[in-house]
Design goal:
Blueprint (H helix, E strand, L loop, with lengths): L14 E6 L7 H16 L3 E6 L1 H4 L6 H17 L8 E4 L5 H10 L4 H5 L2 H7 L8 H15 L5 E3 L5 H17 L9 E3 L34 H10 L18 H14 L3 H8 L4 H27 L2 H29 L7
Parallel strand pairs: 1-2, 2-3, 4-5
The protein binds adenosine-5'-tetraphosphate.
The site of adenosine-5'-tetraphosphate has 21 residues, from helix 1.
């Protein structure tokens, strides 16, 4: 693959883009790996564009009425997590048609061999690869369009999305190389903090995911205090006390996960968690973790409930965000079409 010049991003305004699928209840993984960090980026004063990627969500079946409710609920989760629609652009993807149009153009730049290497497709399609939607296969090209439609230079994501951001860089580089331009930046994945990959509470080798059939595997942002406490109490762990240092977590995936969750919620390092709890058993640690999770998540779920009481207001916020997003994305789409040789005469 042709690399972009090292300084390619210097000619672009620093801009953050990221998204979340409104495909169900948002989880603690989505919060720690994405939402919390989205708010931090906004508060650093960088231009931030955040999207509820409903076009991605329909790559697997979504009940139409449920999709609308989930999209509003995800918007409420963004706002309750600290995204201010006056400081960040917050909208749902399908209201800005440039995403789908640019995705088509990038489908024609991306190579089938690149798509075949995407591990998320292999995980999600499993043995069913012949029966899943074509959209699920093309998902990474739509994600590249989401990012490149804003000339975004930074993409905060969880570990699981790193490969897709790297593919976006390859697509941008090939476009620039083939058309002899330096039109698209080379967006950098920002994968930071103690919770870049929050694991299932039932199986430390699996990512915590909103589509996991087991509700006990995840903490939903809408779970009440009792449910959160119960899920942590029942979380798979082991019989050993917590170690004094990180090496003692080797081979203990579930214990490591619970320590990382505590660290991310408390805003401290995993080392600091072990300095506090090393030598103690899960009988002590799990209730402390549950209390911390409830203290951090209760205000968010309370605010989500308040916002969800006025769906029309959420729709208004998304519409306003979409207009702002379109003002950036449409000219970039137009220029892409022009570079590719399409007549623009309206
Ligand atoms: N377990 C996780 N730990 C850390 N970050 C996570 N993210 C998701 N799960 C974890 C991050 O959340 C953002 C939005 O993800 P998404 O909803 O667009 O898609 P996903 O990565 O496929 O998440 P899910 O929960 O597994 O969704 P479903 O089940 O619908 O496929 C991304 O930045 C992601 O890294």
């Amino acid at each position: 693959m042709t690399d972009q010049p090292a300084d390619i991003n210097a000619k672009f305004t620093p801009r953050v883009f990221s998204g979340i699928q409104p495909s169900g209840n948002l989880t603690l993984g989505n919060y720690l790996g994405a939402l919390k960090r989205f708010a931090e980026k906004q508060d650093e004063g960088i231009e931030t564009v955040y999207c509820l990627v409903d076009l991605h969500a329909v790559t697997v079946w979504q009940e139409p009425e449920a999709l609308k409710r989930q999209t509003r609920e995800a918007a409420a989760a963004f706002i309750a997590s600290g995204i201010d629609p006056d400081r960040s652009i917050l909208f749902n993807q399908s209201q800005v048609s440039a995403h789908a149009e640019l995705a088509w153009l990038l489908n024609c730049v991306a190579r089938v061999g690149w798509m075949n290497r995407m591990t998320q497709f292999k995980d999600k399609a499993g043995k069913n690869a012949e029966k899943v939607s074509l959209g699920l296969y093309a998902y990474p090209a739509l994600m590249a369009a989401d990012i490149l439609a804003y000339h975004a230079t930074m993409v905060p994501v969880g570990e699981d999305q790193k490969q897709h951001v790297e593919l976006t860089r390859d697509i941008a580089a090939k476009f620039n190389h083939d058309y002899k331009v330096d039109f698209f930046p080379s967006p950098a994945p920002l994968i930071e903090g103690a919770a870049t990959r929050v694991m299932s509470l039932r199986d430390g080798s699996k990512k915590m995911s909103k589509s996991d059939p087991s509700d006990a595997s995840r903490i939903n942002l809408t779970d009440d205090a009792d449910t959160i406490a119960k899920k942590f109490r029942k979380a798979v762990s082991d019989a050993e006390p917590l170690p004094e240092s990180l090496e003692g977590l080797d081979g203990r995936a579930e214990a490591r996960n619970l320590v990382n969750i505590y660290a991310a919620l408390a805003g401290i390092t995993a080392d600091a968690v072990l300095a506090q709890f090393g030598g103690q058993g899960f009988g002590t640690f799990k209730p402390a973790l549950a209390d911390l999770a409830v203290a951090k998540l209760a205000p968010i779920s309370g605010e989500m409930t308040r916002l969800m009481a006025d769906p029309a207001e959420i729709d208004r916020i998304l519409g306003k965000g979409a207009a702002k997003a379109e003002a950036i994305a449409q000219p970039i789409l137009e220029k892409t079409l022009d570079i590719m040789g399409m007549i623009r005469s309206r």
